[in-house]
Amino acid sequence: MTAAATAEPAIRVEGLDKSYKTLHVLRGVDFEVARGSIFALLGANGAGKTTIIKILSTLLRADAGSASVNGFDVVARAADVRESISLTGQFAAVDEILTGRENLVLVARLRHLTGAGAIADELLERFSLSDAATRRVSEYSGGMRRRLDIAMSLVGDPRVIFLDEPTTGLDPQARLEVWRAVRDLAGRGTTVLLTTQNLDEAEALADRIAILHGGRIIVSGTLAELKKLLPPATVEYAEKQPTLEDVFLALVGEEPRKEPR
Amino acid sequence: MTTQFFGDTAILLGRSLRHITRSLDTIITTAVTPIAMMLLFVYVFGGAISASSDSYVNYLLPGILIITIASGISYTGFRLFLDMKSGIFERFHSMPIARSSVLWAHVLTSLVANLISLFVVVLVALLMGFRSGAGVLAWLAVVGILGLFTLALTWLAVIPGLTAKTADGASAFAYPLVFLPFISSAFVPTDTMPGPVRAFAEHQPVTSIVDAIRAIFAQQAVGTDIWIALAWCVGILVVAYVVAMITYRRKTA
């Protein structure tokens, strides 16, 4: 927390306000995300998490307030913001008719990178999709789609990545695969802003967590800081019951699956 | 900026053309309905209808080509709707690419897909006895008119493609367009129609386009029909383009 703390944050949001017709979704949202960290935006359905992501990725304009990503204002320097970011939306934004490799090549070419084929092959390898590279995405499982989706977001090594509910609808193993990918990203210095309604996910991944409720960030901090908000736990002895997830993973195995077919 | 626009459009065009080549069934489906109509009208109704013209296929083909385009562009609306819904548009829009490229790629794909369908329909018509003494330039003129009409209807199709809530909604708007040729000079001359119907038939775009193409195929003077036809095409094109672009900006701003 020396250089990163003093350097300009990767994302800065100030007084963000947004209404849809009669629905006042954001009422003055403020937060900052340090470079190279994983920041989780936690909130219930409809809390406005996706709205924030859309504003930060230049898809939507705020009614008031300001936001900057990688030092660029999202309105005034939208083109520079788009050069700096990648968005993995709530629904896997992959082309079903193309193969996995073609999807990656498409994104690489749209980012005007040279050696699109090599970039695609490297990412396929990294996300254990090499075997499925030449199959159409419509034949992929949900977890494979999500992995491809995230791989597509990594083309061109963007500085900042937005992951909007990256594990919604995934089975436990696929979720663990995505978690591994996210940790790996942060390890390479990429800033990750992820939204989730899953508390475990925020706990497992995030350096800092912000809770969005009623259109505002009501608390923000590290997991330890958030835990201090509650009165200290009294020590009790209880038999540790395995959760259903523990049972499920013990029975079917935790390692990433080799995809069938 | 402009070179980037052309480059991005070309890349995205490659993507949607791949969609076309991997779902050739949509092109076949597009061509099947007009071909079935052509068979029906020539071999079932044709004997009763055709008195003036020596070959009913020759009379009928221009109208059938219009129907082919009308049913073809409904797939453009459908493909656009799928892209909007799948989130891949949001991915493209959050990337450093020219935003209008995303729409233009769909529009140009529609043009290519429709030209292939039209080609198939003309081949069938030739098998059914369609003949024309028209030269290369005349054929190019026909392709030009049909291309312009396709472009105009495609931009029209973009509007429901962007705004529809369901896939059916995105393609349903094409049905009235498919029936427009029936109330025109496409199947029978307009002079047998009762007053108001005839007035409508003679003042809607299909009649002027059909008459112009028919005259070109028959190597007759096209007269003012061609200008009325072009005015309709350009008029629809401009209005539909402006509305589609405004809708697009509103959706993506």
CATH class of chain A: Alpha Beta
Compute the number of helices of chain B.
11
Q: What is the number of beta strands of chain B?
A: 0
Given as residue ranges, the uncertain stretches of chain B (5+ residues, pLDDT < 50) are none
Q: Oligomeric state of the chains?
A: heterodimer
Largest interface: A-B, 31 and 23 residues
User: Looking at this structure, what is the CATH superfamily of chain A?
Assistant: P-loop containing nucleotide triphosphate hydrolases
Strand content of chain A: 15-25%
The global form of chain A is globular
Low-pLDDT runs of chain A: 1-6
**Given the helix and strand composition of chain A, which structural class is it?**
alpha/beta
Helix percentage of chain B:
over 70%
Mean pLDDT of chain A: 85
CATH topology of chain A, by name, is Rossmann fold
Domain module tally of chain B? 1
Number of helices of chain A: 10
**End-to-end separation of chain B:** 19 Å
Largest sheet of chain B, in brief, is: none
Can you walk through the features of this model?
- The complex is a heterodimer of chains A (261) and B (253).
- Chain A has a single domain (3-96, 158-252), classed as 3-Layer(aba) Sandwich (Rossmann fold).
- Chain A is 35% helix and 23% strand.
- Chain A has ten helices and ten strands.
- Chain A has a six-stranded mixed β-sheet, with helices on both faces. A four-stranded antiparallel β-sheet of chain A has the order 2-1-4-5, with helices on one face.
- In chain A, helix 6 packs parallel to helix 7 (172-187).
- Chain A is globular.
- Chain A starts with a helix and ends in a 9-residue tail after the last helix.
- By secondary structure, chain B is mostly helical.
- Chain B has one domain (2-252).
- Chain B is built from eleven helices and no strands.
- Chain B has helices at 2-22, 24-49, 56-86, 88-93, 99-127, 136-163, 167-172, 174-179, 195-202, 205-217, 225-252.
- In chain B, helix 1 (2-22) crosses helix 5.
- Chain A binds chain B through residues 54, 57-61, 79, 82-83, 85-87, 89-98, 102, 106-107, 109-112, 136, 152, and chain B through 4, 7-8, 11-12, 15, 18-19, 22-23, 86-88, 90-97, 252-253.
